[in-house]
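Schema walk-through. Below, the input block comes first and the output block second. Nothing else is stored per chain. Lengths vary across the set, and this one has 163 residues.
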Amino acid sequence: MIYTGTKSLQYLSVPVYTIFKNLTTIVIAYGEVLWFGGSVTPLALLSFALMVFSSVIAAWADAVHAASAHASADAIATLNAGYAWMGMNVICTASYILCMRKVIKTMNFKDWDCKFESARCAFAYPSQQLTFSFSQPCSITTCSPSLSSWSSPSSLKTGLAAT
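--- output ---
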C-alpha cells in the first residue's frame, strides 16, 4: 500500500491523489456489504455519489490540462500510469482492511485486543528494523528511489522538488 501510494504520487498531483484515495472508502463499504452483510444508508449512497463525481471532475480536469500541454502524449501517458498505480493502491488498501476485519471477526478479538496487538507490532518493528538494517541490502526504501524516476519534471508535478 505504501509502495503503490508512493508510485501514484510520482505521477499524480497531491489533490488528485487525495480525491482518488477517498474511493477506497466506497470499495470498503461495498466489500462489507458483500462479505459481512452490512448495509449502506441512502445518505451514505449520496456521499459516495459525490465522491465519485469529484473524482470524475478531477480526472477530467487533469486530462484537459494534459491535452493542452505541448507534449500531450507524454502527459497523458503519465496520468494513465498514475491512475493505474492509484487503482492498485485502492484495491490493495481495501483488500487489506477487509481481510483484517475477517481475521478480527474470526479470532473474536475485541477493541482492546486489536489495539494491544497493533501497539505490540508497532513497538517490535522499529527495534527489528534497527537490528537488521544492514543485513538487508535491498529493501523497498532503498530500491524504490534507485529504480524509480524521481527526476525534476515528475517531482515538480507533485510539488516535491526543492525550489
